[in-house]
Write a structure and sequence with these properties.
Blueprint (H helix, E strand, L loop, with lengths): L20 H26 L3 E6 L5 E6 L2 H15 L27 H35 L15
Antiparallel strand pairs: 1-2
Helix pairs in contact: 2-3
Length: 160
């Protein structure tokens, strides 16, 4: 095997959309857990305030935050509001795609672009709160329809 140049370690994968839906769901779940783990480590190790908001391919909302998503987003918006006096018109704004990403890093944006991005984040926060409230309402309705009953014993029926 001295002439074999293939490594058995991690392989570099091409970053593109996964076509098979079942593989896409599994990959989303694993990567979401990894993303949240990294966010928790960043918060714990560095004392950073973190908010990660993710919508699944099936439009489910997942969040990780420390101390809370609202406090992190409010802090971000307050900081942005204090540095800007007026928001440019929508026609002057950069385009934000469906995933909430812009085509260049925030560090390279001009003031007007940052103001547009902030306006988009405000709208995103409103929509996220609306969806979270809808999810809470669905959970409450589900609990009313299917209340949790305490399990007596170990939950298994005995033969007898």
């Amino acid at each position: 095997m001295a002439g074999n140049n293939e490594s058995t370690g991690r392989k570099k994968i091409e970053i593109k959309k996964i076509e098979k839906p079942s593989r896409r769901i599994v990959t989303f779940s694993k990567r979401r857990k990894g993303l949240f783990t990294k966010a928790a480590e960043l918060s714990r190790m560095c004392g950073a305030e973190v908010a990660v908001i993710v919508f699944s391919p099936k439009d489910r909302l997942y969040t990780f935050s420390h101390p809370s998503a609202n406090s992190v987003i409010d802090r971000f918006l307050a900081q942005e509001n204090s540095s800007s006096s007026s928001t440019p018109s929508e026609s002057e704004c950069i385009k934000v795609d469906q995933s909430g990403l812009v085509d260049k890093p925030i560090e390279n944006m001009e003031l007007e672009e940052l103001q547009c991005y902030m306006a988009a984040m405000v709208e995103f926060k409103k929509e996220a709160k609306k969806r979270a409230n809808e999810m809470d309402m669905r959970r409450m309705a589900t609990r009313e329809l299917f209340p949790l009953h305490p399990v007596v014993g170990d939950g298994y029926a005995e033969d007898g």
